[in-house]
Amino acid sequence: MATAYGRVGYSVIDGLGVTASHVDYVSIDDTKTIANMRTFFDSYLDQIEAITGGHITTAEICLVEDTSGRAAAAATSRVEQTALFNFSQAGSPYKYGVDIPAIDNSFIVSGTIDLTDAAITAFIAFMEAAHTGFQIVSKYRAVLNALLDAAITFRKKRRALARVSVEPGS
User: Fold this and answer.
1) Beta-bridge partner residues of 6
2) What is the pTM of this model?
3) Mean pLDDT value across residues 154-166
4) In which domain, by residue range, is 136 found?
5) How do residues 67-119 score in pLDDT, each as one tens digit?
6) Is residue 105 located within the same domain as residue 58?
7) Could you say which DSSP state residue 102 is in?
8) Residue 2: which residues within 8 A CB-CB, separation 6 or more?
């Protein structure tokens, strides 16, 4: 038995329409099933619901993975430069966008994302595929059917950038 780590959290709306969120951290016996996790999570929410006057609007439980063994950031990477992959959804006429921050410049050819690159096609296939016991879905729980389009986009991260790029004057 090993220990995994995760988060449990929720958002509450009050009588005035103001929302607040809270997150707690948990250790998890990695031999437990999803059913065990759901039982724990339901009990957690029951305890919160018993003492709040607000309405729990959203709740989530997630595993937190140690990523210290993953590759370091490329010196030229920028989280503001993203790759936006838009997928069709089962039962919906709307696109569902998956935004990948700091898209590597090697995947950009002539100003567009190279959809023929092996890593990109593998990512798209992974997003569309049914995996044993798992399926990537939209926030509305609709299965992602097929890639519709992809675009290079820029998401402002000015505050974060300012915190790491300020140079002191002389």
Assistant:
1) 26, 63
2) 0.75
3) 63
4) 81-158
5) 888 898 888 778 788 899 999 999 999 999 999 998 998 999 999 999 999 99
6) no
7) T
8) 30
